[in-house]
């Protein structure tokens, strides 16, 4: 029994000596952690031994102290900065200079019930990828976004390709009209609130959606909650639209081309629903004016002028007589002016039934040993809707991006 106890005591003694020797090999390393841009101390930075869980934190002066093995590697990490590491190599003083992380907005942050990116740390966020927009050919992005994001309202005043529309999140100023009677002078207009448009940021810079090539978009994030102003300032009180464009490729050179030709047609062709016979139109015109007391001027009587031209009171009788005689002539003289007696569909004469749209887009991506680059261009053209004159619209987009 005594022999067993002696052997056990000897083993414990040897173990303690080994541990003490191992601890004696550690050295105390201290230093300071500073910001690369400002030179200010970084408070709360973590110093970890690579591969181990041992670590320390910097104090209010950015100073730390830790006991490590002379052959270990120290890793300095802090939220918002890129990690830095240095081999100890027997040194007792090691300073770290941390650079800001260019992709800090993409870092994942733990929140109450899950994880979000920093760019999404607001109350309500909608995000769509650029792939959703590629198949919708439009002159500008605002038209392409219509109907894609809940709560995002885009009001178009007309169909001109130059008009991108007004962009509102959570609505804008609300107008309504109260009618007292049929007279326009008694109409009262009221407005609720002042409203405001959304803040548009393109790669972090304020801009217009109409200036962006839809093919260049990587993603679109819409921050709908008013709390987004805590991140982007008071200008963001009406919501924020974050447009992120595609970055340069780090692989070999690639050239992409996409093009489309589309035919546009009006949903309502008014020229198919109008009276084209001149005599029938004149009879309808007379029927509306003669004996109608609701006409605003000269109640129940025909007007004596149309567009500053004098018209005879027996114009309808003259027209009927000409038609009965088979007279297809267009004009007759009356008081030194011409009178018109022809039949013509003026809407059909002025408007095209269909117009074309073309889009051609090309991008070049590549990299060298020292530089990555992305160059893209887009040409968009749309015919006018009138047969008379030249109203073709042309738009050019050119972009270059070097990360």
Q: Find the CATH superfamily of the largest domain.
A: TonB-dependent receptor, plug domain
**Major sheet: order of its strands?**
10-17-18-15-16
What form results from the Cα inertia axes? elongated
Question: Number of DSSP helices?
Answer: 7
Strand fraction: 25-35%
How does the helix and strand content classify structurally? alpha+beta
How far apart the termini lie comes to 76 Å
Fraction in helix:
10-25%
CATH architecture of the largest domain: Beta Complex
Mean pLDDT: 75
Report the major sheet. Answer: 5 strands, mixed
Would you tell me which CATH topology of the largest domain applies? Answer: Ferric Hydroxamate Uptake Protein, Chain A, domain 1
What would CATH call the class of the largest domain? Mainly Beta
- CA radius of gyration is 38 Å
Residue windows where pLDDT falls under 50 for at least 5 positions: 1-24, 109-115, 173-194
Number of domains: 4
* Quantity of strands, as a count: 26
What does this structure look like?
- There is one protein chain.
- With 403 residues, the protein is an alpha+beta fold.
- It folds into four domains: 2-98, Sandwich (Immunoglobulin-like); 117-246, TonB-dependent receptor, plug domain (Ferric Hydroxamate Uptake Protein, Chain A, domain 1, Beta Complex), CATH 2.170.130.10; 256-268 and 351-401, no CATH class; 275-344, no CATH class.
- Helices cover 16% and strands 35% of the residues.
- It contains seven helices and 26 strands.
- The strands form nine sheets. It has a five-stranded mixed β-sheet with strand order 10-17-18-15-16.
- Helix 5 runs antiparallel to helix 6.
């Amino acid at each position: 029994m005594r022999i067993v106890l002696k052997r056990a005591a000897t083993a414990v003694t040897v173990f303690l000596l080994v541990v003490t020797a191992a601890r004696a090999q550690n050295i105390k390393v201290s230093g300071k952690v500073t910001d690369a841009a400002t030179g200010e101390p970084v408070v709360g930075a973590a110093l970890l031994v690579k591969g181990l869980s041992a670590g320390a934190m910097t104090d209010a002066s950015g100073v730390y102290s830790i006991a490590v093995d002379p052959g270990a590697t120290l890793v300095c990490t802090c939220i918002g900065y890129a990690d830095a590491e240095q081999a100890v190599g027997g040194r007792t003083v090691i300073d770290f200079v941390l650079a800001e992380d260019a992709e800090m907005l993409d870092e994942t942050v733990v929140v109450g019930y899950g994880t979000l990116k920093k760019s999404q740390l607001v109350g309500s966020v909608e995000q769509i990828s650029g792939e959703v927009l590629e198949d919708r050919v439009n002159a500008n992005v605002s038209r392409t976004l219509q109907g894609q994001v809940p709560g995002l309202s885009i009001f178009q005043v007309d169909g001109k390709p130059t008009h991108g529309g007004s962009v509102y999140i959570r609505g804008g100023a609300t107008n309504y009209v109260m009618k007292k009677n049929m007279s326009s002078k008694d109409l009262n207009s009221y407005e609720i609130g002042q409203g405001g448009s959304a803040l548009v940021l393109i790669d972090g810079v304020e801009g217009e959606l109409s200036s962006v090539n839809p093919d260049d978009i990587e993603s679109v994030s819409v921050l709908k909650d008013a709390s987004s102003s805590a991140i982007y300032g008071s200008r963001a009180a009406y919501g924020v639209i974050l447009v992120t464009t595609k970055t340069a490729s780090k692989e070999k050179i690639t050239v992409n081309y996409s093009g489309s030709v589309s035919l546009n047609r009006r949903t309502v062709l008014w020229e198919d629903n109008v009276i084209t016979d001149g005599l029938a139109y004149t009879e309808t015109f007379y029927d509306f004016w003669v004996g109608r007391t609701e006409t605003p001027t000269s109640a129940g009587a025909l007007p004596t002028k149309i567009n500053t031209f004098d018209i005879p009171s027996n114009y309808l009788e003259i027209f009927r007589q000409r038609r009965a005689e088979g007279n297809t002539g267009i004009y007759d003289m009356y008081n030194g002016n011409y009178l018109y007696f022809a039949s013509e569909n003026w809407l059909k004469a002025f408007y095209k039934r269909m117009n074309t749209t073309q889009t051609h887009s090309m991008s070049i991506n590549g990299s060298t040993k020292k530089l990555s680059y992305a160059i893209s261009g887009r040409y968009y053209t749309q015919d006018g809707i009138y047969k008379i004159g030249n109203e073709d619209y042309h738009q050019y987009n050119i972009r270059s991006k070097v990360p």
